[in-house]
Amino acid sequence: MTDLLTLEGVHTNIGRYHILQGVDFTVPEGKTTMLLGRNGAGKTTTLRTIMALWPASKGEIAFAGRRIEAMATPDIARLGLGYVPESMAVFSDLSVKENLILAARDGELDDKRLDWIFGFFPALRKFWLSRAGSLSGGQKQMLSIARAIVEPRKLLLIDEPTKGLAPAIIGSLIECFAEIKRSGATILLVEQNFHVAQQIGDTVLVMDNGTIVHRGAMADLAADIPLQERLLGLSLEAHQ
């Protein structure tokens, strides 16, 4: 199994706060890796550090064998990384169509890929010409994910995509992520909905206090309730 992403001894300081304190992990190519942990463990900071939105103060980050920790965010994105932030960060004054055009290569949308995206998120077709700011929270999340996959990506970094969403929309997201994985993409996904994590995760990383404290198969963690409670302070079963 080839590792597409590798972090070695990564530290991140934000102001006077030392958030990441020597993060080490790998993300295997073609798999979905879940990044779990309690609130404040450093999960979002990890994703933002990989994308150079917050610079690593120490350590190495390699994507497909290439060091990227000193690269600018746009250059990292051009290597084939897509990022879906927790805040969604859609362009509120632009239409759904315009948001996707901005994310597309050379501003050209592929009709076949759009139809594929609409299959998961039909609301985006319905509100194609509507301002993104007028969408509901769930619809904005759909748009944020659609922007990240409007072009094929080698690696997707996704931060809590199901937060605040209705169960029906979560079901569509699960189908979407499964299809993205079948297409050959690799996913690193931060998620607090452990039922979702159990369904789509192949491997799992657990963070605590800015370091990785557990790594292994998602199925093994899902089957070990005492380990879940020790690492996360609760069980997956309690959140299904």
From TrEMBL:
InterPro entries: AAA+_ATPase, ABC_transporter-like_ATP-bd, ABC_transporter-like_CS, BCAA_Transport_ATP-bd_LivF, P-loop_NTPase
Domain ABC transporter: 5-234
Key words of the record: Amino-acid transport, ATP-binding, Nucleotide-binding, Transport
CDD domains: ABC_TM1139_LivF_branched
Pfam families: ABC_tran (PF00005)
Coiled coil: none
GO molecular function: ATP binding; ATP hydrolysis activity; branched-chain amino acid transmembrane transporter activity
GO biological process: L-amino acid transport
Family matches, as PROSITE patterns: ABC_TRANSPORTER_1, ABC_TRANSPORTER_2
Role description: Involved in beta-(1-->2)glucan export. Transmembrane domains (TMD) form a pore in the inner membrane and the ATP-binding domain (NBD) is responsible for energy generation.
Family that this chain belongs to: Belongs to the ABC transporter superfamily.
UniProt protein name: ABC transporter related
Protein source organism: Rhodopseudomonas palustris (strain HaA2)
